[in-house]
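ESCALATION

Customer reports they have been waiting on this structure for their group meeting. Please prioritize. Original submission:
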Amino acid sequence: IGAFVKGAAYSLTALLAFSCGNSQQGGMPALSLAVMTVEPTSQELNSAYPATIKGQQDIEIRARVSGYITKLCVDEGAVVHKGQPLFLIDAVPYQKAVQAAEAAVEVAKTNVATTQLTVDSKTELHAQNIISDYDLQTAKNSLASAKAALAQAEAQLASACNDLSYTTITSPSDGVVGTIPFRVGSLVGTTTQEPLTVVSDINKMFVYFSMNEKQLLALTRQKDGSVNSMIGAMPEVQLQLADGTMYPAKGKIETLSGVIDLSTGAVQMRATFPNAQRLLRSGGTGTVLIPSVLDSALLIPQSATYEVQDKKFVYVLGDSSKVKNTEITVFPLDNGKQYVVTSGLKPGEQVVVEGVATLRDGMPIQPITPEQSAAKVQAMTQQMQQAAAAQK
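Update from on-call: job pushed to the front of the queue and completed.
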């Protein structure tokens, strides 16, 4: 019954008009409709844009060596710091590889020392003309080869040590740990497609939203036509969270994409919000509210307008209480409930704010105030509620 009453209340406007309007000579009674007088006022409008929230950087954590996970050092959602261990991979094979590389380095060092003794000895013999230049040069070449083998062994040792260090996977930055699809015993490696987890840096949050091409052009032309000037002049924006509450800190629009999406006709913009309390999380959603303060603005309800071929019209009350359809232009930004009229209306004119679909140009009406209209609707609603209760 409540839903029926609520729906019927708005459809009673015309019926109330006939019951309360004054009769015209030789015709139907005039509709009794609410009108408002437009007066200039200072107004702040908030334009709403659906948005997605992402961390300042979302870093995919991947394994740089292959092996079985032996330990999870953190849990999902944990706050971590740069360098903090996240996963441990079985290190035994890599420890053995390091030991083998260390042994190879020692062998290479021994070969270098032995070859150096040979070169020193042959150098003295050559000075005494006991051996030829060929024998001395051969010894020097052997020394150079031994030193190269030592350098190669040391490089292999460094590589083995790096692989061993990669068995402890650490966080590359401060942030929050995402989901962890792999558990202890899982085999991971450099070819694993899915990351081990994602660490999100959420000290600052990037909030992405889209603005269509017409809105972007309108905002740009308000300045000198420069996108950078437009961004610099943009006011601080607010973020409405998914539960309808307002995020306490304000953000700043910093960038917009250089390419308009052909599939949507929109350009993506990015606002940055501080996140000291870590209330915002990467992957969340919300609504960006862009304020626009207008002086001497003429505000009318959006329900008072109708469109014909992308042009907006209203009915203005004229002489003899007859309405006249009037074309208007509106500010490109609105709050979803009202329009700011930039041309087509003058201060002091009266606009019909209800029953627009029932009107025609030149039709006479019985003008009443919005308060009187609301009171009549409320009275009729109460009568319907009483009638519905009596039928039970």
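Sent to customer with the following note: The mean pLDDT is 85.
Escalation resolved.
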